[in-house]
What we know:
Elements: H1 11-26, E1 40-44, H2 53-56, H3 58-62, E2 67-70, H4 78-85, H5 87-97, E3 101-105, H6 115-124, E4 128-132, H7 141-165, E5 168-172, H8 182-190, E6 197-201, H9 210-220, E7 224-229, H10 242-245, H11 258-266, E8 272-275, H12 290-309
Parallel strand pairs: 1-2, 1-8, 2-3, 3-4, 4-5, 5-6, 6-7, 7-8
Amino acid sequence: MLPQPASPLSRRAFTRLCAATAAGMLAPRVASAAPDFRLRYVLASSMFGTLPIAEILPEVARSGAVGIDLWPRPHGSQREELTAMGVEKFAALLQEQKVRLEVITRYDLGPQRIATELDVARTLGASVLVCASGGPRGLQGEDLKKAVREFVEKMKPHLALAEEKGIKIAIENHGNALIESPDSLRWLAESSASPALGVAFAPYHLPQEPALLAPLIRDLGPRLQLFYAWQYGKGSKEKLPKEQELLQMPGRGSLDFAPLLGALRQIAFAGPTEIFMHPVPRGIPILDTAAEVTAEINRARSYLDERVAAL
Length: 311
């Protein structure tokens, strides 16, 4: 994924932000629909760069995750390992390590070329396939709305197949893509009746404003299929000192996740949460050893769990 700085607010987004802020100040606190809400964590294999999958699987339980998200190059190499190993042997490895495959990320394919990946996901038990929309960039207003509707129309055959196999296709609000802005996300959610179409929600690629992000989460509601616990920090495009690079992680950068977590609780979000960041260059672990990577993920998990407990 190519990161980009938080973008300026569109007029529509600014209006929503002001309204949400006013509503938050004036409205009484609403009881949550999910009083026993907890995050279900999945471990992104890309956090370990191109370490072999056999070395990463033991870290799933150690990181408090319920399963793993398999990433391809250039971010990781574990999806390629699956291909080299074969589905049957890979399934045996998962069983041996008592790890569930929860998510497969395929930015290398895109949403129009994932038919065969649906079969792999179904065979191995993954419930979510993540990809980016691609498509025209920089559209606004009615042009953007029309392009989103056309994108959803092209997705219909793939969504029908995903429905048949019981898998969600989650489109990330990826920078420099059709689906990247708050407006595009809302129109994506409104433009399809298929339960197979979802959103992989990445705060990193949006303005770092809780008063915008939390209402957007509530608007997406059941369309939100995966939540990246990931903030912009100082970005991930240029090499930075490690302490600055790590500002993408929850609890290190300036983004207050509490309002976002409160919104997730309000919509009774039960999908996977992925503690995430990008290293520079892509394909290296976020820290030197697997143990250090897991320790950093656990630090971020403690930060998030403390804020969930305080809701």
